[in-house]
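Every protein is a chain of amino acids, and every chain bends into a shape of its own. The fold becomes a row of whole numbers, each drawn from a learned catalogue of backbone shapes. The protein below has been through that process, and both of its lines are reproduced in full.
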Amino acid sequence: MKSVAILYIAIGKYDCFWDDFFSSSETFFLTDVLKVYYVFSDSKHIKQTHQVNVIPVKDEGWPRNTLNRFFFFDSISSKLLNHDYCFFFNANTKFLKPVIQEEVIPTDGQSNLVNLSWHNKTENIHAVLRYERNPASKAYIPQSEGSIYYQGGFFGGRTKEFLAMKDSILSQIKEDDEHGIIAVNNDESHLNKYLLDKHPRCLSGYYGRPEEWDFPKDPAIIFTKKEDKIGSVFIYRLKKKPFIYLLKHAYNKLKQKIL
């Protein structure tokens, strides 16, 4: 492998996670491979270096900032073609143990994509981990389909397949935008729709679980507790969007439970 592109979004207060992410990635993640970071941010704290490319973006609030990730990736498609693999990580990702190529690179018979899943949908670990059930959305998955729920906090793959995934999901989000639709779990819903008939390398929670969870024990990667650094996530989002929007989003999630 020649090089890996690391994609990272740090908008608003989320830049406070950058130092831990970068230092832990350099210490533990694919240390035998050239890594180049592409950081989409409005921060003055994150500095451009020979290894870190900072791409200025606007803070459009939640959930637009997370939905925009595929627009961000699209804006640097030509640069990503210079790398063999691309991996995206949530802002609050922290590496705790070495992760080597053999653990995260797809093997023969897989689609050259890598995704993280915490559970089979029938286990219902957390109520928000639900497919989009609104037939009007391009992220729609019927009740009879799907067996794995993929997380949006860590995904990637070989650059060719990654960019194909980006193109498809971007098209889905644009079409939903035209009809005023936001999927129940935003970009993650579109990710699950895209992967419905694919066969990515599916990683367990060992490669990314919330810090506050007890299982799996001794993970290699965690998502640190956001509240410890940015306070209440709900209040933070409320400051970025009108209250009426959050009410509409809550109503959409309630409909998902009914469906």
